[in-house]
Design a protein that fits this description.
Shape: globular
Helix content: 10-25%
InterPro entries: FTHF_cligase, FTHF_cligase-like_sf, NagB/RpiA_transferase-like
Pfam families: 5-FTHF_cyc-lig
Number of strands: 13
Order of helices and strands: HHEHEEEEEEEEHEEEE
Strand order of the largest sheet: 6-3-2-1-7-10-12-13
Largest sheet: 8 strands, mixed
Distance between the termini: 26 Å
Protein name: 5-formyltetrahydrofolate cyclo-ligase
Cofactor: Mg(2+)
Structural class: alpha/beta
GO molecular function, one term: 5-formyltetrahydrofolate cyclo-ligase activity
Strand content: 15-25%
Length: 198
């Protein structure tokens, strides 16, 4: 899928299916290579973040661009990385990664992803940046998620939090339809570039 033929002939449901299929078709080696390439752009975030920043990051598990490099970046720069905890129809809460993801107690959520087992949680308002997954994102920052609305509800409750899309380059499309509840991202980081939208 190229940006010239992106979503024009596809409903959001069709686009989700097509993008998810394309993500899942990538080999593990290709996913990891793409994550290493995307990690180069993380250092451009340093001027935008306070010292000891709190950064929310997701655990990839459905073919998304892997996030291991973000956790390593946070550890290297002295930032505290957090993982999201979902509650139906509510904004996300965030629990700290305990040193490394492998040392952080996790449980499998009913939706299939892993999330922390922790009572030490913060609201999104305590995050300086939230790096989110997506199915597609356009050049205005409108993101198409999995349909649960977790990140839209969460971003609606934030004030000064930097909202960052983390994805493969092929997930960036020219334009997506925007619904009244959609919350746009401020930055897009792919394996090929960083796009600053605001």
């Amino acid at each position: 899928m190229t940006k010239t033929d992106c979503h024009a002939d596809f409903s959001p449901m069709d686009l989700r299916k097509r993008m998810r299929t394309q993500r899942r078709s990538l080999s593990q080696a290709k996913r990891y290579q793409s994550a290493f390439l995307a990690a180069r752009f993380l250092y451009q975030l340093i001027p935008l973040l306070p010292k000891n920043a709190n950064i929310g990051v997701y655990l990839d598990g459905f073919g998304e661009l892997p996030t291991f490099a973000i956790a390593k970046f946070c550890q290297k720069l002295g930032y505290q990385a957090y993982l999201p905890i979902t509650t139906p129809n509510k904004p996300l809460k965030f629990a700290p990664i305990m040193g490394s993801i492998s040392k952080t107690p996790l449980k499998k959520h009913r939706l299939g992803m892993y999330e922390p087992v922790s009572r030490l949680t913060l609201s999104a308002n305590h995050m300086d940046a939230i790096i989110c997954p997506l199915v597609a994102v356009d050049l205005e920052g409108v993101r198409l998620g999995m349909g649960g609305g977790y990140y839209d509800r969460t971003f609606a409750k934030t004030k000064n939090c930097l909202k960052i899309a983390w994805c493969y380059e092929f997930q960036v499309v020219d334009q997506l339809p925007k619904q009244p509840w959609d919350m746009s991202v401020d930055l897009i980081i792919t394996d090929q570039r960083l796009i600053r939208l605001k």
